[in-house]
């Protein structure tokens, strides 16, 4: 169905456009002297509205002969032929309408009036049909542009989701690699601790599977997952690893799932592990007017050897923030006074149903 006919409001607006065009045609006919002003209006306005429905066919003509496929020459031929045919049909309608109105006005003058008005009607209809085709082509081009823009946005969203899934997929192998190294180190020194670490690791991974499939989880759930991870590491480091976590009033703020686990892992692997007396891994969250600020702080050994890691954890978090929030979120790193601090700033988002990345 024609897009104008499919919506009553559009149809009413379309008919309203043809009323002033009918008034213009009435003025042309009256100036020719074939009609008086009132008679010209009575004839021209209904004819103009009827021709508006004939001009709806321009939409089908343009759809069947797009410029980018058939070329400009064929479009011109189709436009001229369609305009001539529509104008000819309109003349037949006009002849009948002239005869009908003449029965109530001046029957003897009807044939002469039609012959005098026919050239004006044909030329007027020819130009209006060409205008209708031009508008149809413009509307088609606009619709194609909108569709292309929509498809481009959909592709951007799909690419972003694929990037997020790829980044999330990197977390599990990276974490498991480090965890298995820790368990391996305990198997000979403390087999019971290695077994306890395996059980804690299983619980952590089970919880990771439950929460990791969701795009956003409450900060309280994310911190609970971090506590489980640090409990696994406390088996290896014992009293050397202390944990201090405080979410303040920000526990209900949604954050990307598994966002903080790489930061906690980094604090243990590159911080606590190199400090002989150990220390405290402190995680703080502060809810501000338009943002959530999370800091992960841990002691470091200034004389520690250069890390052998690939830096995947911090890079992964930075890339996930860029993919999820663009320039509205950022990660800062600071090393001062024997402490290493990672600060994450996230924009506050309205609560929404969980979705999968």
Explain briefly what this protein structure is.
The protein is built from ten helices and seven strands. The longest helix is centred in the middle third of the chain and has 80 residues.
Kindly describe this structure.
- This protein is α+β, with helices and mostly antiparallel strands and 357 residues long.
- It folds into two domains: 8-152, no CATH class; 190-347, Heat Shock Protein 90 (2-Layer Sandwich).
- The protein contains ten helices and seven strands.
- It has helices spanning 8-32, 37-55, 57-64, 67-70, 72-102, 110-189, 191-212, 219-237, 261-269, 312-325; strands at residues 216-218, 241-246, 254-256, 279-287, 291-299, 330-336, 339-347.
- The chain has a five-stranded mixed β-sheet with strand order 2-4-5-7-6, with helices on one face. A two-stranded antiparallel ribbon has the order 1-3.
- Strand 4 and strand 5 (291-299) form a beta hairpin.
- Helix 6 (110-189) packs antiparallel against helix 10.
- The longest helix has 80 residues, at 110-189.
- It starts with 7 loop residues before the first helix and ends in a 10-residue tail after the last strand.
- The model is unreliable at 351-357 (pLDDT under 50).
């Amino acid at each position: 169905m024609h897009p104008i006919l499919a919506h009553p409001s559009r149809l009413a607006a379309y008919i309203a456009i043809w009323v002033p065009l009918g008034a213009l045609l009435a003025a042309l006919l009256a100036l020719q002297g074939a009609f008086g002003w009132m008679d010209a209006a009575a004839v021209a306005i209904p004819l103009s509205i009827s021709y508006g429905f004939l001009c709806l066919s321009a939409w089908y003509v343009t759809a069947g002969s797009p410029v980018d496929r058939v070329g400009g020459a064929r479009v011109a031929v189709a436009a001229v032929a369609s305009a001539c045919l529509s104008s000819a049909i309109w003349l037949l309608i006009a002849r009948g309408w002239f005869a009908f109105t003449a029965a109530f006005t001046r029957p003897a003058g009807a044939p002469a009036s039609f012959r005098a008005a026919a050239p004006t009607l044909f030329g007027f209809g020819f130009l209006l049909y060409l205008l209708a085709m031009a508008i149809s082509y413009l509307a088609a081009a606009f619709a194609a542009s909108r569709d292309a823009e929509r498809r481009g946005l959909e592709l951007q969203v799909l690419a972003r989701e694929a990037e997020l899934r790829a980044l999330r997929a990197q977390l599990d192998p990276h974490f498991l690699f480090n965890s298995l190294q820790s368990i391996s180190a305990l198997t000979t020194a403390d087999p019971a601790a290695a077994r306890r670490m395996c059980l804690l690791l299983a619980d952590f991974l089970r919880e990771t599977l439950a929460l990791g499939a969701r795009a956003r989880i409450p900060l309280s759930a994310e911190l609970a997952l971090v506590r489980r991870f640090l409990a696994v590491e406390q088996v290896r480091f014992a009293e050397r690893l202390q944990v201090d976590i405080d979410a303040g009033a920000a526990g209900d703020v949604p954050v990307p799932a598994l966002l903080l686990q790489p930061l906690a892992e980094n604090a243990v692997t590159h911080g606590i592990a190199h400090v002989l007396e150990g220390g405290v891994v402190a995680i703080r969250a502060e809810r501000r007017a338009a943002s959530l600020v999370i800091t992960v702080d841990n002691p470091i050994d200034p004389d520690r050897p250069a890390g052998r890691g690939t830096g995947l954890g911090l890079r992964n978090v930075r890339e996930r923030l860029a993919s999820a929030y663009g320039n509205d979120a950022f990660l800062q790193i600071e090393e001062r006074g024997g402490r290493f601090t990672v600060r994450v700033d996230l924009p506050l988002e309205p609560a929404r149903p969980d979705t999968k990345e």
